[in-house]
């Protein structure tokens, strides 16, 4: 036990609203290791680490650091004990330089540029200190956060879902950095729900499910199937089998599309592509490169400034979502809470959103036929294997996975010809993810066209028949997944065009307009 640096005993966390996030968790980390904390969204990983880093107080339980019992009232108290956390959503000031962000909050005498440069040299974490954070890619911003923690003499570094906004190349660079920090005696806790990453970079793994520890293992003895079973509680098919695509006619055509974001800047810059019946066309890329605006423009939620959207042979540019529905388009939105569901409405009410004016749901004086609507909701619940207390239960009473199944079920029950699926498995457990991915393949096999937009590169590679990589509002290239290596995809996600990479010349990042 001498090498155990972190020991958390019987940690319980109950929030004021009665939500039980942690149910008696025992967790320990050895000095100088990279320890993976694995689990689905909502498993309690981040809550446990917020307690360790002083951001939350546990309801009960004990924490020991290097054998000494501690109790933190704030993150600054945890920092004094050498514990620092880099959050999934980076806490940097965009208008400040890298240097200003690193020294923010420190007394003037401790803000030594020379010491920071020496630290960067020793660790290999190089960042441009005088550059504004808002001008830097996510990978560099993350390095700034890590330097910020190391400069405060952190020995235990907690990283929460650190690869969410990184390209494959930036992810490899991060893993190299973590291994170097480990050699220097730092202890790293790596929070993730990604099996491949936890197997690649960690020494040991603790798995959480629904607020409890369900397994501990040395990484060398772990397999993806074993970890997935721990996370979900049953066997999971890791690879989804699919038949070769049989594409038909183009049913969704985008021509020279230009779309602005909420700040009035160009988010989509002259995109042209087609999606065929009987295929899944995937769009990969780090989030924030125009994918959201593209989806909103295609589905009638955002104005198209220039260009055309053609659906089933008809020009539908700037048509309303209801018109697009009638023409055969369904939309699985990226945020099920903002755009997919009204959480205080019932399952039945949510099951007819967007189609509530259909004749079969309306009686005399345009009153809703609740018996027919409840029957419709029950059919969706049964067909899409939704676990719900009943059709009159509020949508918020369903788990995240079942809420997403309700959205997917509603959209697919509209008998669409074209399905626009934006981040369809975000925040779901392995079982719900597996279910929805199989469903999209099933729709494609029935001759439907699927436009899949996802920040999960594994999802794009596994499901797509053709794929594009999007960077700053443009496509860096379109190809079949099997034609692209991970290195090529990484370069494209970083702004290099496919033809530049193929030419073998030193690639230059695509110019942003």
Task: Explain what you see.
This protein has three domains: 4-232, P-loop containing nucleotide triphosphate hydrolases (Rossmann fold, 3-Layer(aba) Sandwich), CATH 3.40.50.300; 239-328 and 416-513, 3-Layer(aba) Sandwich (Rossmann fold); 336-414, no CATH class. The protein is 32% helix and 24% strand. The chain contains 18 helices and 20 strands. The protein has helices spanning 45-52, 75-80, 98-103, 113-123, 138-151, 168-183, 195-201, 224-232, 291-298, 321-326, 336-340, 347-351, 370-383, 400-412, 430-445, 457-463, 486-493, 498-503; strands at residues 4-14, 20-30, 34-38, 60-65, 68-70, 83-86, 156-160, 187-192, 204-209, 212-218, 250-260, 266-276, 280-284, 306-311, 314-315, 329-332, 418-422, 449-453, 466-471, 474-479. The strands form four sheets. The protein has a six-stranded mixed beta sheet with strand order 6-7-8-3-9-10, sandwiched between helices. Strand 4 (60-65) and strand 5 (68-70) form a beta hairpin. The model has no long low-confidence stretch (mean pLDDT 89).
């Amino acid at each position: 036990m001498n090498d155990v640096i972190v020991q958390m005993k019987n940690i319980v966390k109950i929030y004021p609203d009665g939500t039980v996030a942690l149910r008696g968790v025992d967790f320990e980390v050895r000095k100088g290791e990279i320890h993976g904390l694995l689990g689905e969204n909502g498993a309690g990983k981040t809550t446990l680490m917020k307690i360790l880093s002083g951001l939350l107080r546990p309801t009960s339980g004990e924490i020991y650091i290097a054998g000494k019992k501690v109790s933190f009232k704030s993150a600054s108290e945890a920092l004094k004990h050498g514990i620092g956390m880099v959050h999934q959503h980076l806490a940097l000031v965009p208008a400040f330089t890298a240097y200003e962000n690193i020294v923010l909050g420190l007394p003037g005498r401790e803000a030594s540029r020379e010491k920071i440069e020496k630290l960067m040299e020793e660790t290999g974490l190089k960042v441009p200190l005088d550059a504004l954070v808002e001008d830097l890619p996510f990978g560099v911003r993350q390095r700034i956060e890590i330097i910020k923690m190391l400069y405060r003499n952190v020995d235990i570094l907690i990283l929460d879902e650190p690869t969410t906004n990184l390209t494959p190349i930036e992810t490899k660079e991060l893993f190299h950095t973590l291994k170097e920090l480990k050699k220097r005696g730092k202890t790293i806790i790596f929070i993730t729900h990604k099996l491949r990453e936890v197997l690649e970079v960690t020494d040991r793994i603790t798995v959480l499910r629904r607020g409890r520890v369900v397994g501990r293992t040395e990484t060398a003895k772990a397999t993806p199937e074993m970890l997935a079973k721990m996370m979900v509680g049953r066997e999971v098919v890791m690879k989804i089998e699919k038949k070769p695509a049989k594409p038909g006619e183009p049913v969704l055509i985008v021509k020279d599309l230009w779309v602005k974001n909420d700040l009035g800047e160009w988010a989509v810059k002259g995109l042209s592509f087609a999606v065929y019946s009987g295929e899944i066309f995937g769009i990969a890329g780090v989030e924030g490169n125009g994918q959201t605006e593209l989806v909103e423009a295609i589905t009638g939620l955002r104005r198209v400034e220039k260009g055309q959207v053609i659906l089933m042979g008809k020009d539908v540019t700037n048509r309303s979502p209801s018109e697009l529905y009638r023409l055969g388009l369904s939309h699985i939105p990226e945020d099920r809470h903002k755009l997919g569901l009204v959480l205080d409405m019932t399952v039945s009410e949510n099951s007819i959103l967007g189609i509530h004016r259909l004749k079969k749901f309306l009686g005399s004086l345009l009153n809703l036929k609740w018996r027919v609507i409840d029957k419709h909701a029950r059919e969706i619940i049964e067909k899409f294997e939704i676990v719900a207390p009943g059709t009159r239960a509020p949508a918020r009473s369903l788990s995240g996975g079942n809420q997403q199944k309700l959205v997917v079920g509603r959209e697919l029950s509209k008998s669409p010809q074209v399905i626009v699926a934006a981040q369809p498995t975000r925040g779901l457990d392995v079982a719900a993810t597996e279910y929805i991915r199989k469903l999209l393949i099933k729709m494609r096999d029935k001759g439907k066209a699927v436009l899949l937009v996802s920040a999960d590169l594994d999802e794009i590679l596994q499901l797509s028949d053709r794929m594009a990589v999007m960077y700053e509002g443009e496509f860096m290239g379109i190809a079949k997944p099997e034609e692209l290596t991970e290195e090529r995809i990484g370069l494209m996600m970083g702004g290099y065009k496919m033809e530049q990479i193929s030419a073998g010349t030193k690639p230059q990042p695509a110019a942003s307009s």
